[in-house]
Amino acid sequence: MATSRAARPVHNSAFRRLRGARSPGEFAAVVRRAAREIGEQVACDARYIGRVEAGEIRCPNYAYERVFLHMFPGLTLTDLGFSDRETVRGRGSRDADDAPLPHPTSRRPPNHAVQHHPVQNHEESDVLRRAFMTSGTAAMAAVSLGLGPAAPDATHHRVGETEVRAVEAAVRQIRLLDDRYGADGLYRRAEQPLRTAYALLDAGSARRQAADRLHAGAGELAISVGWLAHDSGRFDDARSHYAEALATARVSGDPALEAHAFCNMAFLARDTGRPREAVRAAQAGQRAAKHLSSPRLLSLLNLREAGGWAGLGDRTGCTEAIGGAKSLFAHGPSDADPEWMSFFVEAELEMLEAQCWSSLGDWTRAARHAYRAASLQDPHFARNLALYRAELADDLARAGAPDRAAAAGHQVLDLLDGDQVRSERIRTMLAGTARTLLPYRRAAGVSDFLERHAA
After folding, report:
1. Where along the chain is composition biased (Basic and acidic residues) (predicted)?
2. What are phi and psi of 205, to 5 degrees?
């Protein structure tokens, strides 16, 4: 039976002209900045720009489409050198592709979204399918992302570009879903891709560059899965995953991955009542990051250190670390900022400072920063919005403003009750707020909040 040969990609000369004299890396940085301006998250790098210009990406996913149209107002996708989505997808796939992820205002539970609406990254999905259907070693990944049948007796296979991209895509998928919905329901699903990533590491790569990227991808995946465990209250699991990522960083000599691992380890240590360990881990992260040319990364690590000092009751150390963090943050974003730091915007800076003042017992000051965090947060990311409002509710309750605390608590319940967010961390915070408000039951709105929370 004859088979048709796929058409060769046609170079996108229109997009290449728009890049102008900038390098692919420089243009990718412009794309990322434009995405931040409209509250989108895209993992654009020089490789992606190269794939667009080579015609490998005939139509961008919806997130990139919004960013490109924001960058070039008045132009259409066709003007940018892309094909119509209908031409690329076909009618059958278009019905599924056009179904959006649940908006934070919808009532669809996040685990349903996970099952049927993975991150809208069709280009990466195409890469995954090619990788998984041709590689025995990657067969487990096919199962973990729903791309094919199981193959427990997978044969060893030298890992190449397609498998590496598969791991990197899994990291992005997990991060985006966590940003929008929270960790509960995602953690167990994310463990399979992690096991697959380390199986690929064991299989080995024929090229050093692919091996380095695979180490970095597996380490980042370990951190992402560790964070899901952390946010859902599985602290021992989180500690194990973070340690795995740190070991991977040390083996591969990757200071960026090492800094990330220490950053999360400091956060976990603070959350589990080990503030001195939090300080040491944050300082170790700063040493790893000092040559990475990312002031924002150093800013975040300073805030992790501040959280540790606050837990120790050291106001001076905390204040100095916060000051350093703010000074570094003011340098602005850099092309060297790690992709995972897309969450670290001004709202997160305010939230982390609020947590420091809360640990030091300065509830009024903490509430001011928590209010700023909630006000600045993009409502598209419901999980962080719920977290910031939960912090605000608790700070207000402890600052002696029970009526305002109850109002903020209701806003958190709106997100939790509607299944827009599933996070054991946030539920635990809100339970603490409810206990604090018990003596103020007669204050305006408090009784209603307590009854609703209890239900």
Report:
1. 87-97
2. -130, 145
